[in-house]
Structure formats: C-alpha cells, structure tokens
Amino acid sequence: MPDAADAPTAADAGTLLLGGDLEVRRLGYGAMRLTGDGIWGEPDDPDAARALLRRALELGVNFIDTADSYGPEVSERLIAEALHPYPDDLVIATKGGLTRSGPGDWERDGRPERLRRCCEASLQRLRVDRIDLYQLHAVDPRVPFEDSIGVLAELREEGKIRHIGLSNVGRTELSAGLDAVPIASVQNRYSLADRDSERVLDECESRGPAFIPWFPLGAGGLGGAAPLRRIATAHQSTPFQVALAWLLRRSEVMLPIPGTSSIEHLEENVAAANLRLSDEEFAELSQVQRPQSA
Length: 294
Hints:
The protein is about 35% helix and about 15% strand.
C-alpha cells in the first residue's frame, strides 16, 4: 500500500488563476449532491455530509462550487457548518438565479432585485463578507440579460462579490457578458460524453475565463465504450477517472468539479488528478462519440 504522503491530491491537477488573482487547484468539488433526493431538503446524514467536506480539504481541494438552489439553501449552510472559519486559500463559488418548487424542479428568475436578495442571503449563510465567485445560474429569457449582469456588476462594486461568473450560457451570451463586465468563469454541462459546449470552451480559451464543466462524469453516456474501458484497465483506474483525466488534459482553463455524497467516491475522483494520458490515448478518447438515441 502506498504511503499516505504519496497518495494523489487535488494539487496533482495543477492550478489556474481564477479571475486573475485567485489560485485554485484544477480539480474542485461540486456540492450539489450534499442535499436530499432531487437536490431537495436535508441529506439523510448531515454529519456525513460535513465530514465529506472536511475530507475534500484534506485531499487538497481548494475550490468548492455550490448554489442557493441546492436544497434550497442546504448546501451553502452545510459548507459553513463544516468549514467555517475557512482556510485562507479556500475559494467558495455560489450561484443565484434559479427558484425551486419541489424535488427536481428548477425555474429561472434573473430579476435584478431577486439576484440581489439571493446574493445577500448567500453571504449570510456562507458567513462571509464577500463571495469569491458569484455566478448567474441561468439566463432568464423574461429578463434582459444586461439587467441580470448589471446587478452583479453593482454587487461587485459594493464589495459583496469578488468575481462574476456565468452558467448555462451560449457563446453569444458569453460574448455579451464579457463585453459588459469582467467574467471570471463559465459553468456549462460538458464531459467526455457531452461536448455541446465546445464553442463556449473555445471562447473561454480565447478570452480568459475558466471553464467549469458540470456533470463532468458523464462518461456513463458513452455506454461502456471500448477505448474508455481499455484505457482505464491500462491505468488500473476506473472509466470515470479516465474521463476526468481527459477533461484536465483537454484545456488549461478547465476546472472540473465532480460531485458526490460518498467519501470513497470523492477519494476516487481526486485520484484522477494523478492520471496522465498519453497523446495517443487522449486523441483516441477525443474521437469517441456519444451513442445516438434510437
């Protein structure tokens, strides 16, 4: 058994500068799964959820992503209960702009007055004076995009937000956001199995924001593709670890945030930071196609 000092940590993934001034390790933790079923209500074991958060920090994770809608409010509160007072290098990102009416239900609300209330409530739950990264969770088609972005810019000027991020946006919206205010990150669905946001990722590489893929372990959508299984076997790893390693190799602005409610799975995910794909393996995986629906 390898010595604990030699065990992989999130530091093995390297770092990036978020917003130009926050150095984070390129393998973070997404805190959505800390809640109950349907991302609704309390977890079955709140103590275990808090222990998982503390274990993430022990494994070198220093970027945690959450949202006020996870629970709602549950994930942010658990983070504060488990980790406050926070280590100096810990960066906590949260989001506003969705409302919840029940398990599995998500509705958009990007009105400026509501985004302001959401941000100020997140400040209280997280027990901070300023949120490191505050993200618009989704664009509300009923609200002018510039109005939603404008209130985040105001909150930034007031010192309540350090950096602004966008989530679930297209390339046009990203370009409009970048023209209006500094954008530190984009969080879109993206994985080895789902690359619909490829053009958005290209824009991030060109213009500077970090790209935070949500549902980064979408390798299950590949249906056990032979190259994925073969490469996982060659590295004595799992297909999900290979999928994370592919993401880290795909772009220097990539910041995966695999989420889980299991410490065992957390440790497995972090171990992917030490998995190095060869040029040939990366190229072969990049050619794997998601199965078409019947």
